[in-house]
Amino acid sequence: RYSRDGVAVWVQPPSPGGPAVHRIKCRLDVSDVPAETVYDVLHDIEYRRKWDLNVIDTHDIAQLAINADVGYYAWKCPKPLKNRDVVTLRSWQVLDNCYMIINFSVKHPQYPPRKDLVRAVSVLAGYLVHPTGPTSCTLTYLAQVDPKGSLPKWVVNKSSQYLAPRMLKKLHKACVKYPSWKQQHDVGMKPWLYPEQNKLPTMAVADLALQRAASLENIDESSLLEVKDETGDHSSSEN
């Protein structure tokens, strides 16, 4: 465990000889944003396209239940790694004033792996937002992810020590700005709170299948060296 920029991080690398699953837990204490606002930001896909600069493509595909859907997310990885994407089943719930979102990878018949991206696997990932006061909360992020590649050590270290904390700090800034942004963008549209607003096509869970990492191609990128972008800063991903 260590802390960086106010974010506490726990990391468990893959076990030698075992599945290539990277495990990470991050916790951020937020002093100036209520829990419900953080929850809204985690859900609002239109706003994510604004503040998450590493998004290549993200959209909801279909509704599975009033509190579950299936969606697509593709993101930029640190150069010179190949970019990744995932298709996930996501569910959410508000219980005892705590806000929970979890997801895991699934196969969708209309979203097979793409040749220009590496299909990663979310074994299990999620957010827990716990209020600590009227305008404060704690945000915890957990992820068990198989990136489907033999990654160089610098990527693993950078992702856990720098990129994950930076991502949560950017999320925090986005949360602070969200109320004013939302006032100008469909202020009352929050289908994650009001299911009757959801206009996605419906889909049966039986039409999906669990995405197993063993069925996907493994990409060996272990020998790749880190590069810098044109500004002199190391290129990065913040997903």
UniProtKB/TrEMBL annotation:
Lineage: Eukaryota, Metazoa, Chordata, Craniata, Vertebrata
InterPro entries, per database record: STARD10_START (IPR041951), START-like_dom_sf (IPR023393), START_lipid-bd_dom (IPR002913), START_lipid_transfer (IPR051213)
SMART domains per the UniProt record, alphabetical: START
SUPFAM superfamilies referenced in this protein's UniProt entry, alphabetically: Bet v1-like (SSF55961)
Record GO terms (molecular function): lipid binding
One cellular component (GO) term of this entry: intercellular canaliculus
GO annotation terms (biological process): lipid transport
A Pfam family it matches: START
Keywords noted in UniProt: Acetylation, Cell projection, Cilium, Cytoplasm, Flagellum, Lipid transport, Lipid-binding, Membrane, Phosphoprotein, Transport
Residues annotated as domain START: 1-180
This protein's name: START domain-containing protein 10
Protein localization: Cell projection, Cilium, Flagellum; Cytoplasm; Membrane
Main location: other
